[in-house]
Amino acid sequence: MQSPAELDNALSQSADAYRQWRNSEMAERLTVLRQREPELSCTITLEIGKPVAQARAEILKCAALCDWYAEHGPAMLVDQPTQVANTWQRFKPIDASQLCRGIFRSVRCYVVRSTCCWQAVSTCSSTRRTLMGSATLMAELFAATDLPEYAFTLINVDNDGVSAAIKDPRIAAVAVTGSVRAGAALKKTVLELGGADPFIVLADANLDEAVKSAVTGRYQNARQVCMAAKRFIVEAAVVEEFEARFSAVVQALTLGDPLDENTFLGPMARFDLRDELHQQVERSLQEGARLVLGDEKIVGVGNHYALTILSDVTNDMTAFSEEMFGPVAAIAIARDADHALAIANDSEFGLRATVWSDDSAIADRETGAVFINGNGASDPRVTIGGVKKSGYGRELPHFDVHEFCNIQTVWKNRH
């Protein structure tokens, strides 16, 4: 952990770099991500247990994101005329640094040339050990590019240090991915917080495709993912068949060493997260949920948790009212499409939703995104973000860049 003096020095270096960078051209594409993909993928796997094949896909996705912004970013900052004569809007970088978490959230800085102080995530081992983790490795990679020195500055502080950084006048904006309680700030913010994403399956759904989508949507990366299918709301006419097919596929998934290319489910990031998840499952069972599969901590090396499915879940149970951040699926039964929509909307979260049906009306969900008859995937051409307690603001594409711009009006009188 850095001391208060070290944090102060990092913020000063970032502010100085901003003054040097703000009026320069955009840097070259961040090709180092692709060049060192094997090292980055392995580091992620060793750090949080994410299966290496999934870690590789994450690195390549980030590289594609950077490439896309390098190509299209400049056009997002072109002055735009207004309907008022002799006026236009100008997109200027905010006059200080930003506090972000992760490369995915830092790309906007790369486009607008606003510097970034990048806080390491507490879940990852690099924040607890001297071992080089993904955050430290990424800082090293940025240093090897043509970006100005300290354009991206890694900080590693405790909660008090993060609070101090947010309050510091050298930080003008904050981008956070985390829990609801992590979302309080006094600066311009883009917040992606908790989620309890509904996955609705109606009677007219293609069950083969819906089950395949449900398995990926719930169990990839032990479902330690913010945007993930969490509440499975299935119409009564097909719930028995869906449950049988779903549990059969889940039982066949490989759980084990995340460095093995054939492993689908690795360990959870920390023991305490696994134990908290187990307590949520136990409470749900006490509240009346029915156990279909799993419900056991796996004793031995690693933070493994058994693939678990709960059914007959209602919205007043823990499995529906709280975010289950791990490999546990909860199934609720809906009488019809209207009831399914009511169950989905009865949540304090609103990150995204998935609907398997040809009934377009069921997609009328109060959420940041709706995916119909398919799994959602991030793409730099479309937005990401939530409503209600899932946060506010939008990431990707030009919406993201403009979130952290000073949108300046220029009005020129003619003499």
Structural summary, described in words:
The chain is an alpha/beta fold and 415 residues long. It folds into two domains: 4-193 and 390-411, Aldehyde Dehydrogenase, Chain A, domain 1, CATH 3.40.605; 197-379, 3-Layer(aba) Sandwich (Aldehyde Dehydrogenase, Chain A, domain 2). It has 13 helices and 18 strands. The chain has helices spanning 4-21, 32-35, 37-48, 52-76, 103-112, 134-143, 159-167, 207-219, 236-251, 271-286, 318-321, 337-345, 398-403; strands at 80-81, 87-93, 97-100, 116-119, 152-155, 171-177, 188-192, 197-201, 229-235, 290-293, 308-311, 328-334, 349-350, 353-356, 370-372, 387-388, 391-392, 405-411. Strands 10-11-12-9-8-14-15 form a seven-stranded mixed beta sheet, with helices on both faces. A hairpin with a 5-residue loop joins strand 1 (80-81) and strand 2 (87-93). Helix 3 (37-48) packs across helix 4, helix 4 (52-76) packs parallel to helix 5 and helix 8 (207-219) crosses helix 9 (236-251). The longest helix has 25 residues, at 52-76. The chain is globular, with a radius of gyration of 23 Å.
| Gross morphology | globular
Q: How helix-rich are the residues, as a percent range?
A: 25-40%
Major sheet, described briefly?
Answer: 7 strands, mixed
CATH class of the largest domain: Alpha Beta
Alpha carbon gyration radius: 23 Å
